[in-house]
Design brief:
By secondary structure, chain A is of the alpha+beta class. Chain A has ten helices and four strands; from the N terminus they run H-H-E-H-E-H-H-E-H-E-H-H-H-H. Helix content of chain A is 72%, strand content 8%. The radius of gyration of chain A is 32 Å and the shape is elongated. In chain B, helix 3 crosses helix 4, helix 3 runs parallel beside helix 5 and helix 4 packs across helix 5. Chain B starts with a strand and ends in a 6-residue tail after the last strand. The chains are: A alpha+beta, B alpha/beta. The structure holds adenosine-5'-triphosphate (ATP) and magnesium ion. The site of adenosine-5'-triphosphate has 13 residues of chain B, from helix 1.
Chain lengths: 302, 221
C-alpha cells in the first residue's frame, strides 16, 4: 500500500517537472488558465459583495401608511387591528404625528425651519413590516392597504432593493454563462497541451507499451499533468482575485468614508476558494482525459 | 513454450514477410534465428510478442494464442517476456538506471526491491559503474548490453533478442553470447536472431533458418 502511494507521488513529481519544461511555456499556460478562471470568479466575488451591500442598505422592506388628517383615535385603533390581522403582515408600528415631527427635527437638521411652522404638517402613520415576499406580493399588499378607510397614502420603501436584487440575479446568470465558456476554453487548452506532451513522450509511450505497460499506467502521468496544471491555474486565479481586490479596496475605503459608511470588498471565502481550486483541478484532469483518450491510441508500437 | 503453426504474415501493401512458418521451441531451450536481411527474423519475433499479428495460422506462447489476444491482455503477455529490440528503443530522457527501472515500475515493484534488481541486472551486463550516465553517452556495445539489462531485470521466462550482437566486434559478441548462455543455464527460454555465423559455429544449438519468409530445415544440435 505504501509503495503504491510512493509510486503515485513519483508520477506526480515527474508530471509537475514536465509542466515547467520548458519553464516559460508552463508559466504561460498557468497564467492563461489563471486569467480565464479569475474573470468569472472575480465577477462572482464582486456580485456577492454587491448583494451583501444591497442587503445591508435596504434591510427588510416596509410599508409606510399615512392616515388622513381627520382620523380620530378610534379610527386609528380600528385600522391598527385591521392591519395587524392581515395575513401578509408581520408586525405593525404606530408613529404618532408628534413623534414623526420630533424625528424629522433630529435627523435632518431642519430644526429651525420646522420650529417656525405654526402647526404640525405631518399625519399620523403606521409602519408595516410585511412577511417576506417578492416585489409583486408587496406591491399588492400596498395597493390593498391604500383602499382601507382613513388611509391617505400607502408607500412601499426599499422596493428598489428588490429590483436591484433581480438585476444582480441576472448578472449572476451572465457570469455563469461566461464561466461555462471559459471552462470549455480551459479544457481546450489542456487538451492541446496534453496532445503536445503525448507527442514529446512518444518514445516513452511506445517503449512502455512494448514492455507491458497497461493503459492506466501510460495514462497516469498525463492525467496528473492536466490535473496539476489545472490546480496551479486555479491557484493563479485565486492570487489574481485576491491581489485585485486588495488593490480596489484602498480607493474604495476613501470613497466610502466620504459617504460616512464602512464598506470593504470581501475576497473568496474558504468554501469558495476550495471550490475554485477543485474545479480548476477537475477541468484540467478532464481536458487531459479527453486528450489521452483521443491521442494515445495513435501511438502504436512497431 | 513457443509454437508457430502454419503462420503467414503479410504486411499492408501486400508484402509477404512470413509464409507457412511452423516450429516449436520447448521450455528452457535456446534457439537461434538466422537469415539474410529482410528474411523475416524481426517479423517472427514481433509475432511472439504480439507486436504484429499473423494473417493466418496460430502463434502459441505458453499455450496461449497470442495472435488472438485482446488489447487489454497484451500487457500481461509482455511482462513475461524480455525483449531486446533491434533498434534498442532506449529512452534518452533518463539515465541508465531509470531505463532499466522502467519494466519494474510498470509491474509496480516497490522502490527498494526495484533498486536492488536494477543494480543486479546492470552488474550482470557490466554497466554498474555507468548507472548515472545517459544512454546516449554509451558506446554501441554498451547500449546493446543496456538493452539486455532492461530485458532481464524482470526475470522473464522467455527472452527474445533481435540481433543483439549486430554491429559489434567479435569480443563484445562473445561477451553477450556468454551472458545468454548463463540465462540458458538457469532455465530461461531464448530465441535469438542473428546473422553472425561465428556465433553459431562454436555452439551446438538449434538454428532456425529463414529465407524470404520461408523456414528452411531447422537444424537441431
Ligand atoms: N511495418 C512493415 N510494413 C511493411 N513491410 C514491412 C514492415 N516491416 C517489415 N517489412 C518487410 O518485411 C520483410 C521482413 O522484414 P524483417 O524486419 O522481419 O526482416 P529481418 O529479417 O529482420 O531483416 P534485418 O536482418 O534487416 O533486420 C522485409 O522485406 C520488410 O521490408
Ligand atoms: Mg530485423
Amino acid at each position: 500500500m505504501k509503495h503504491i502511494f510512493a509510486q503515485h507521488l513519483s508520477v506526480l513529481r515527474t508530471a509537475t517537472r514536465r509542466i515547467f519544461n520548458p519553464p516559460l511555456a508552463g508559466l504561460l499556460n498557468i497564467m492563461v488558465i489563471g486569467i480565464a478562471l479569475s474573470l468569472p470568479a472575480g465577477m462572482y466575488v464582486l456580485l456577492q459583495n454587491a448583494q451583501g451591500l444591497v442587503q445591508q442598505l435596504s434591510g427588510t422592506p416596509q410599508i409606510s401608511v399615512f392616515l388622513s388628517m381627520d382620523a380620530k383615535a378610534d379610527d386609528i385603533e380600528k385600522l391598527r387591528k385591521q392591519l395587524a390581522q392581515h395575513p401578509a403582515v408581520e408586525r405593525v408600528e404606530f408613529v404618532p404625528r408628534d413623534q414623526a415631527l420630533q424625528q424629522l427635527k433630529q435627523s435632518t437638521g431642519l430644526a429651525d425651519v420646522i420650529g417656525g411652522l405654526e402647526k404640525n404638517p405631518l399625519p399620523d402613520a403606521f409602519v408595516i413590516h410585511p412577511k417576506p415576499g417578492n416585489a409583486q406580493t408587496l406591491d399588492k399588499l400596498r395597493t390593498e392597504i391604500g383602499t382601507f378607510p382613513k388611509v391617505e397614502q400607502a408607500q412601499l420603501d426599499s422596493v428598489w432593493a428588490y429590483k436591484l436584487e433581480a438585476l444582480l440575479k441576472f448578472a449572476t446568470l451572465a457570469v455563469l454563462i461566461l464561466a461555462s465558456l471559459l471552462s470549455l476554453a480551459l479544457i481546450a487548452i489542456t487538451f492541446n497541451t496534453i496532445r503536445l506532451q503525448i507527442l514529446t513522450q512518444r518514445d516513452e509511450i511506445e517503449v512502455s507499451k512494448l514492455i507491458g505497460a497497461s493503459n492506466g499506467f501510460i495514462r497516469r502521468p498525463f492525467l496528473y499533468f492536466g490535473a496539476m496544471q489545472g490546480l496551479l491555474g486555479g491557484i493563479a486565479a485565486y492570487l489574481i482575485i485576491t491581489a485585485s481586490l486588495a488593490l480596489l479596496n484602498r480607493p474604495l475605503n476613501t470613497l466610502s468614508q466620504l459617504y460616512a459608511s464602512q464598506f470593504t470588498l470581501h475576497s473568496l471565502n474558504l468554501g469558495d476558494s476550495l471550490s475554485l481550486l477543485l474545479f480548476s483541478l477537475y477541468l484540467g484532469w478532464l481536458g487531459a482525459w479527453l486528450s489521452v483518450a483521443r491521442h494515445l491510441a495513435q501511438v502504436e508500437p512497431r | 513454450m513457443i509454437s508457430f503453426n502454419q503462420v503467414r504474415k503479410r504486411y499492408p501493401g501486400g508484402y509477404e514477410a512470413l509464409s507457412n512458418v511452423s516450429f516449436e521451441i520447448a521450455q528452457g531451450e535456446m534457439a537461434f534465428l538466422t537469415g539474410h536481411s529482410g528474411a523475416g527474423k524481426s517479423t517472427l519475433l514481433k509475432l511472439v510478442a504480439a507486436i504484429e499479428r499473423p494473417n493466418s495460422g496460430s502463434v502459441l506462447v505458453n499455450n496461449q494464442n497470442v495472435g488472438a489476444l485482446k488489447a487489454g491482455a497484451l500487457p500481461f503477455l509482455r511482462r513475461n517476456l524480455g525483449i531486446i529490440f533491434q533498434d534498442h528503443k532506449l529512452l534518452f530522457d533518463r539515465n541508465v538506471f531509470d531505463n532499466v527501472l522502467l519494466p519494474l515500475q510498470i509491474c509496480g515493484f516497490d522502490h527498494k526491491e526495484s533498486a536492488k534488481r536494477v543494480r543486479a541486472a546492470l552488474d550482470k551486463v557490466g554497466l554498474l559503474k555507468r548507472e548515472r550516465a545517459n544512454p546516449i553517452a554509451l558506446s554501441g556495445g554498451e547500449q546493446q548490453r543496456l538493452c539486455i539489462a532492461r530485458a532481464i531485470v524482470n526475470r522473464p521466462a522467455i527472452l527474445l533478442a533481435d540481433e543483439p550482437t549486430g554491429n559489434l566486434d567479435a569480443d563484445y559478441a562473445q561477451d553477450i553470447m556468454a551472458i545468454f548462455k548463463s540465462f540458458h543455464q538457469v532455465g530461461v527460454t531464448l530465441l535469438i536472431s542473428t546473422h553472425d555465423a561465428g556465433v553459431l559455429q562454436d555452439t551446438r544449438v538449434r538454428v532456425l533458418n529463414l529465407r524470404n519468409g520461408v523456414l528452411q530445415t531447422a537444424t537441431s544440435p
